[in-house]
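Today's session is about reading a structure prediction critically. Students often jump straight to the picture, but the first step is always the sequence itself: look for stretches that repeat, for charged clusters, for runs of hydrophobic residues. Only then move on to the predicted structure, which in these notes is written as discrete structure tokens rather than atom positions. Here is the chain we will use throughout the hour.
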Amino acid sequence: MSNKKDTKKNLVFKNRKAFHDFTIMETLEAGIMLEGSEVKAIREGRINLKDSFVRIIKGEVFILNMHISHLSTTHTTYRPDERKDRKLLLHSKQIAKLYAKVTKDGITLIATKLYFNDKNMIKVEDGIAHFLEHKIFETLHQSFSNNTTLSMEMFDRDVQTVMNEYLQGSI
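Below is the predicted structure for this chain, in token form.
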């Protein structure tokens, strides 16, 4: 029985896409406001942080686009929205510091990890991150070079057909 409780405490959900697309400069821990059925769903692993991000709205911090699936045991009339905005719990001084850092160009807040702490409370690890622009440029360059080679091949084919028609005297 005690082994079951230990495994439940060690549940950690990471946002792997965030580590791929961003350089994490600093992290901080925040609490999160959830409803009862959402906590049970997280314990079952029904959470996705992939496209989630953090915004400061009117002096409060919210995590947006975090997906928590419904439980099958939840009553149909009491099912919260799966992608609703959830408030993060931080002190006002922490929010002011975050706001000062985020107003700089290229700096953003992202949710990197969601886990249960020692007191069995759900915490969200937020990261102050810088977007990796070179990844986008690499993908754009690859798609551009692929498109240019295709268009050059099409151009060569068109020139060849026009030359053949000219030599045959049909033009």
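Discussion point for the tutorial: Residues 133-168 form the longest helix (36 residues).
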